[in-house]
# Entry
Amino acid sequence: MPSTQTLALSEDLTIYHAQEQKQVLLEALATSQELELDLSQVGEMDTA
# Structure
């Protein structure tokens, strides 16, 4: 299992995309010990 994986997210991180983003994150975490997120292409993020 690789120790670190970089995951580039490009969709907005909002309530409208939460379920699909959760699945992407869980799949990435299942194959790596650490996960680095590249959020440079994310235009909007819910923070509440």
Summary: Residues 4-38 form one domain. The chain has a mean pLDDT of 91.
